[in-house]
Design goal:
heterodimer; A: 82 residues; alpha+beta; Ubiquitin-like (UB roll); 5-stranded mixed sheet; 2 helices; globular; B: alpha+beta; Aldehyde Oxidoreductase, domain 3; 6-stranded antiparallel sheet; 33% helix
C-alpha cells in the first residue's frame, strides 16, 4: 500500500522535502514507517518527542495505516512561552 | 470562527466577531513576537502550520470551551509566515455574560493552543536560527 508522508518545520528542513510517498506492507504502522524513513532520511531528528498524525488527526504510533493515508510527523509545538 | 492567515492580524476585527448584547465580558488575548529569547537577539520569526490539522485542532478547542464553560462566542486567528519582532502572531477573543468564566476559558484556550495545535515557530537571530519547542541540539542551525 502507498501512504503519503508530510514533514514540517524542523523535520521538513532536515529531510530536505516537505512530502514524499512511501510503499509499505499492508497493515504497517506509523512506527514501522518511521523506521523505514530513517534509512532514507538519516538526518531526521526523530526523538521520542515525535507525535504522529494520520489524516490530520493525532494518532497512535502502533495503529495500522491504510492505503492513501496521509501521515505527518509532528515536531514539538512551541510550548507555553508566551 | 477560526482562521490562519499570512496577513497581519487585526485584534479589533477578531474581537468584533464575539461582541454581542448578551455578553458582559470580552477578553482579547494577543500573542506578540519577542525581540529577545534565551539570550539571543531575535531578528525575525517564521511560523509554519500544518494548516488543515491546525484548523481542526482550533475548532476542537473552541468546542471544548463551549462544553466546559458554555461560551458560545469565541474567535481565534493565527498568523503564519514571516513576522517581524513586535507583531501579533495570535489573537484569541472570547465573550461571556460574566468575566470569571471568560478569564478561565481564555487561560485554558491559550494553554491548549500552545500544546496541541501544529504551528511551529522559528526564531532567526544573529548567527543562527532555531525551531522553538524542539530540543536545542536538534533545533539550532548556525548560519554559515
Amino acid at each position: 500500500m502507498k501512504v503519503s508522508v508530510r514533514f514540517f518545520a524542523l523535520y521538513r528542513e532536515r529531510a530536505g522535502v516537505s512530502q514524499t510517498e512511501v510503499e509499505l506492507p499492508e497493515g504497517a504502522t506509523p512506527n514501522e514507517l518511521l523506521i523505514q524513513l530513517r534509512s532514507e532520511y538519516s538526518s531526521l531528528p526523530m526523538s521520542d518527542s515525535v507525535l504522529i498524525a494520520v489524516n490530520s488527526e493525532y494518532a497512535r504510533p502502533e495503529a495500522p495505516l491504510h492505503e492513501g493515508d496521509e501521515v505527518a510527523f509532528i515536531p514539538p509545538v512551541s510550548g507555553g512561552q508566551t | 470562527m477560526i482562521y490562519i492567515t499570512s496577513e497581519p492580524l487585526s485584534p479589533q476585527a477578531v474581537t468584533d466577531l464575539v461582541c454581542k448584547g448578551s455578553n458582559g465580558a470580552v477578553i482579547t488575548f494577543l500573542g506578540t513576537t519577542r525581540d529577545f529569547s534565551e539570550g539571543r537577539d531575535v531578528l525575525y520569526l517564521e511560523y509554519e502550520a500544518y494548516q488543515p490539522m491546525a484548523e481542526n485542532m482550533l475548532h476542537q478547542i473552541v468546542e471544548e470551551v463551549r462544553e466546559r464553560w458554555g461560551i458560545e462566542d469565541m474567535a481565534v486567528a493565527h498568523r503564519i509566515g514571516r513576522l517581524e519582532v513586535g507583531e501579533i502572531s495570535l489573537v484569541v477573543a472570547l465573550a461571556s455574560p460574566h468575566r470569571k468564566e471568560a478569564f478561565e476559558a481564555s487561560q485554558y484556550a491559550m494553554d491548549r493552543i500552545k500544546e496541541v495545535v501544529p504551528i511551529w515557530k522559528k526564531e532567526v537571530f544573529q548567527g543562527g536560527e532555531a525551531w522553538i519547542g524542539s530540543p536545542e541540539e536538534e533545533a539550532t542551525t548556525p548560519t554559515p
